[in-house]
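Subject: mismatched residue count in predicted assembly?

I count 1008 residues in my input, but I want to confirm that the predicted structure covers every chain. Input:
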Amino acid sequence: MLSDVNLLGPELVLMVVGGFLLIADLFIKHRRVLVGVTVAALLGSLVYTTALLSEGFVGNDAFNGILVFDHFAVFFQVLLIGAALAAVLVSQPTLARLPSRRGEYLALILFSTAGLQLLAGTRDLIGIFIALELTSIAQYVLVGFHKDRWGSEAGLKYLLTGAIASAVLLYGMAILLGLTGSTNLADISRYIALEGAGREEALVLAAVFLIVGFGFKAAVAPFQMWAPDAYTGAPTPIAAYLSVASKAAAFAILIRVFFEALGDDLLAEHWKTIFAALATISMFVGNVFALRQNNIKRMLAYSSVAQAGTLLIGLAAISADRSELLGASGMLFYLAGYTVTNLAAFVVIIIIANQRGTYNINDYAGLGRRMPWLSGILAFALISLIGLPPTALFFGKIYLFDTAVQSGLGWLAVIGTINTVISAAYYLRPVKAMFVDQPETEEDEPPVPVAPTSRGVLTTLSLASLGILIIGLVPSLVIDVAEQAVSAILS
Amino acid sequence: MDPSFPVLSLLIFLPLGGALLIALLPGKHTPTHAFWQNTPGTVQQQARWIALGTSLAALIIALVMFIIFDRNADGFQFVDEFAWIDAQSLGFNIGYAFGVDGLSMPLVLLTGVLSVVAVLVSWKIDLRPKEYFVWLLVLETSVLGVFTALDLIFFFLFWELELIPMFLLISIWGSGNRNYSAMKFVLYTVFGSAFMLAGFLVLGSAADTFDIRELRGADLGAAILPAQAIFSFILIAFAIKLPVFPLHTWLPDAHTDAPTAVSVLLAGVLLKMGGYGILRLLFTLMPEVGADADLALAIIGAVSIVYGAIVTIRQTDLKRLIAYSSVSHMGFVLLGVSALGVTGMSGAALQLVTHGLITGMLFVMVGLIYDRTHTRQIGEMRGLIHYMPLLGAGLVFAGLAGLGLPALAGFVAEITIFLGAFGQHEAPVLVSMLGVLLAAGYILWALQRSIFGPRDEKWAGLTDSNHWTEFAAIGALTALIILLGVYPRLVMDLLEQGVTPIVEQIEAVAAMGGGGG
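Triage response: the counts match. Full output below for your records.
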């Protein structure tokens, strides 16, 4: 039993400190102390994970198989901690503007991260649901944290659609439980292998409900309607956090469920069709809607829908024998690259918004001269999002498209590459504004920055942009880790 | 030279290194207490001298390689390679591999020459000179990478890398409707490379390698698409780049609005990436499909030649005129390739080189004249030759080379292509000859209407070419055009050596097909 709790350690650290922060909020008003405690908690969780890893706990499970500690879970735990750390560090200006509830904000980030970590490490339907609700409820509050018109609208929209998605997910789980008599992914897989034949329709129905629930979290079209409003209304660090952490964890659980529980050959063809269709819809919807956005946060919201579509290509490649490993490791690689890229983009946007108070792409005109480094990094991140060299997502896209081709989905690779063209049209707009356009009014002195850019923000930014370059130049570093992670769930 | 010395990598990444050096120059925003401060004027000075030094060094390396290149050996030389991503279990094996053979060596040298010319004609750029030269050098690296990559993924990487500098160079330093043109250029190219990437991935996953040397002759039976489909996918990208009617519409816009140096590089080397790709990738990797498609290619080539020539006649802007004439001239490449013989293919490859020099020179001349007159409209330039005899003569010389005057470079290439292709495709060749006639017409007519004519007092205050950079650029190009016109063997030997394995492969396939049928 003690070792069971031990495996829950990384999440427990976050939850305990989160609870402490909620109480401490009443007494401690000093922002630096609160942020320090939060960062310490996240680092503590990371250390705990590494300790478990080096102490040989890999492959152990706990609580009757609900929780598992494998390389796959570790991969996502590290990724999620990274995203959460970035979100906390860049939240300083947001926190400075909050009159109160600073501890609450940080505690909610910790709770949400704990939930997402659980999601990556659970192999049981009940565990999945608990983890998903833990993270969702924290996120509903975070999205609506600014009590202005947009914040409230975003929070309410996210809450209502999220509640429906949860209900649908639960419905799917109930069907699956009814059919197979178990909530454990391994048991479900065993059942399908033995007695699944003849019950395909019911299984597919249950799986579709599951996809709705997870697809909502990952902002996959057509379950993406909350994303643009939530990204715009939420505090920008939270938008950044949602766009990378939520997405990564949602794809983690999609991979786990569809590889471990439903990966049987019996159903593989169905998944191929469903995910290929969703990938196509998601890419087109995200990219086409992003074309017309002037608010860069909205643009990145739609872009994240399109990127989710690109990731789904990996899931569509689930069925072919050899590509099974390739598809999943391709997704993990892409997620790692996407996380650093999107974080870098969002951090620059936050800095620009703090200094110039705008999210409008047209107001970025001439920034390349005034802030050459920041503009350069934003341009670099956007180039990575398009998938041009020498960036992380250049190889990420090649990896996923090659996966599609190897599993006989050449047309999906073509659709993916055509979408790359569409996406170039809007990703290049901020680049053009910053470096090509001249500002309408020549100002001698930049407006007084609302908040100075802190060291934490700059560190986050440098790490993220270095990540883009390093993953782009030496992709084998991440590929090896991704392969190791994926082999854990396929053994 | 020590054979293990990575001279080719040095060549490819030298311009990038120069670009980094320029980027790190302290700009005028550097605080005054900085250790080393600069005024805008000295930034321009330093940037252009570094750019010139780097591109000259690259040219010298390319020249040395050209001289010590072994003209009797088969295969690739100066090969630099190591495994970049080695995940064979996943069917993923990407190698960092670069090398040159007879086909790519002259193109590498051409890139070296035209990059120096591009720096020289940009000498007076004063709008954000630091960034300008950075992007110009990045562009050189990406083109060199395309011409020497031996791995499909690296080929694609450099092919895409070229977009970023081009987009910025056209949209910041261009003229006219430059934002539209830059975006159009990028979207056309990315559209083409979308299909190219799909084709590459199918090829790579069928043969389990992305290495061009191993892919040659590999069995593509396991590919998920028929070879014809892969061929057409990749052809789309190259046809856009070359460009070929009806995929050429980005070219006149991009050319017209780009700054002079970028026009030179665009016409001189970027278009050549398309022709090079057709020879290096399509016909080397899928000779049987190429051999079947020869008539189609010949017809597309002939249509491009004639259509391009007819549209050229109607142009009133000198840069646009040259741009459309490029469409016509690049049709010859396709025609030469379609001949499937050593003569036709080496003629096509020679056309890539000579057109690079000639059109490069045409753009240089028009750019220099435009710097002085601020007009490119043919009707407005009358009598210019009386005031600028040197620039006028240069334009006339380049124009004559462009229409294929014997003893100049363009003539040799075109006549070789006709000789090679006539036996194979008589009708397209006959139609194409119309293009030569039209070329004589549009060039002479344009020259007559633009710079000749009675003196016009409005040009009286203008000076002729008077700066050493201009003399150097014009002189180098003139010398090379004459040299290749009288002694084409200089590169023809290499090109023939480069295309011979391709032709042998086509013949081998044809013999097998003949034996089977």
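The interface with chain A takes residues 29, 84-87, 89-92, 153, 156-158, 160-161, 163-164, 167-168, 171-172, 179, 183, 186-187, 190-191, 193-195, 197-198, 201-202, 204-205, 224-225, 233 of chain B (CB under 8 Å). Marking this ticket as 'not a bug'.
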